[in-house]
Specification:
Length: 291
C-alpha cells in the first residue's frame, strides 16, 4: 500500500524530487519503492531519461486505478469517523467496585467516552459474583478464575496481588514463613477465601487466613492495613501510593502472590457495535492501565 501511494505521488508531481519533498522522504527511498513495485508487477512503470521520468501506458492505467481506490478508502475512513459519532445507546457493564473505581481514577475510559459520546455507560458495581444468566448486561469484567458458563469470554490481562502490612505491625516479630503469618490479624477481601503464593522454589502454596476482619471492598481492607490492624492480601494497584510512602511494606516478598486473571464476559448472542467497541478498547488499554 505504501509503495502504491509513493507511486501515485510520483505520478502526480511528475518527478522524484518534488514527490520526495511532499512525502518528506529521501529520493533514494522513493526510488527504491518504485523499483519494488515494478518488481512485484514484473513491468517497468517509467522510462527514465536523466532526471526525467516518463510514465508508461501501464503506469497511466495503474495510476487511474489507484486514484479510484484511494477515493474509496477515503470514503471508508470518512464513514468510520461518522459512524463513531453515530454509535449510541446504553452499554451496561458489570465490574468489581474497587477495580472500577481505580479504572475511572486512572482515566481508562476517558478516551472511549470522548470517541463515542453518544454511548451511555451504565456501570453496575459489585464484588460478589452475580448469577449472570439471570442478569441483564452487555459486558462483565471478572477477576479470577472463570466459572463454567454459556458466555463468551476474552482474557485482557492480569492483576498483580501483594501481601503487605504497616511497618509497626511487623516491628517485633517479622514473619519468616507462611505458617508464621498466623500470629498476625488477617484482613480478608471477600470473595477471596485462600491466599495463594509461589514459593522461592517455584511451588504453589496456599494459606488459609482467619476472618479477623472481612470486607467486600478491597480498599477498606487496605485502609485497615495502613492503620496497622492486620495483613493485607489484595490488588497491588490499590496500595501503590501507600507502598511508595512507606505506610505499607511487602510481607514475605520471597513468596510471590499469584496474579489473578482479568477477563471480559458477554452473552452468546449478536453483539452490538457498542459492546464490540468496548471489548476491543479494554483489550487494548487495560494492560497500560495496570502498570
Amino acid at each position: 500500500m505504501e509503495d502504491l501511494y509513493y507511486f501515485s505521488c510520483v505520478m502526480r508531481f511528475g518527478q522524484l524530487k518534488s514527490a520526495a519533498l511532499h512525502l518528506r522522504v529521501s529520493v533514494p527511498t522513493l526510488s527504491r519503492a518504485i523499483r519494488r513495485l515494478e518488481q512485484r508487477l514484473n513491468t517497468s512503470l517509467f522510462n527514465r531519461h536523466s532526471n526525467n521520468l516518463k510514465p508508461t501506458a501501464g503506469a497511466m492505467q495503474l495510476h487511474q486505478q489507484c486514484c479510484q481506490q484511494f477515493l474509496s478508502l477515503e470514503a471508508l475512513l470518512r464513514g468510520a469517523r461518522e459512524q463513531s459519532q453515530s454509535v449510541e445507546g446504553p452499554l451496561r457493564i458489570i465490574a468489581p467496585v474497587a477495580f472500577a473505581r481505580s479504572m475511572l481514577a486512572r482515566g481508562l475510559l476517558d478516551s472511549f467516552r470522548h470517541s463515542y459520546p453518544k454511548i451511555e455507560l451504565r456501570l453496575d458495581l459489585c464484588n460478589h459474583r452475580l448469577a449472570l444468566d439471570e442478569t441483564d448486561f452487555d459486558l462483565a469484567i471478572l477477576i479470577g478464575e472463570l466459572p463454567d458458563s454459556p458466555f463468551l469470554c476474552k482474557r485482557i490481562g492480569s492483576l498483580a496481588f501483594i501481601l503487605a502490612a504497616a511497618p509497626a505491625l511487623l516491628a517485633s516479630t517479622p514473619p519468616l514463613s507462611l505458617p508464621e503469618l498466623q500470629q498476625f490479624p488477617h484482613l480478608v477481601f471477600d470473595p477471596i477465601k485462600h491466599w495463594h503464593f509461589r514459593s522461592p522454589q517455584g511451588e504453589q502454596q496456599e494459606f488459609m487466613p482467619r476472618r479477623d476482619f472481612s470486607c467486600t471492598d478491597a480498599e477498606i481492607c487496605a485502609l485497615e492495613a495502613i492503620q496497622g490492624k492486620g495483613l493485607y492480601y489484595g490488588p497491588k494497584l490499590l496500595i501503590k501510593e501507600a507502598l511508595h510512602s512507606g505506610e505499607l511494606v511487602p510481607v514475605l516478598p520471597q513468596f510471590q502472590p499469584l496474579e489473578r486473571k482479568v477477563s471480559l464476559l458477554w452473552p452468546d448472542r449478536l453483539v452490538s457495535l457498542r459492546t464490540r467497541l468496548m471489548i476491543d478498547y479494554l483489550a487494548e488499554h487495560f494492560p497500560c492501565c495496570v502498570q
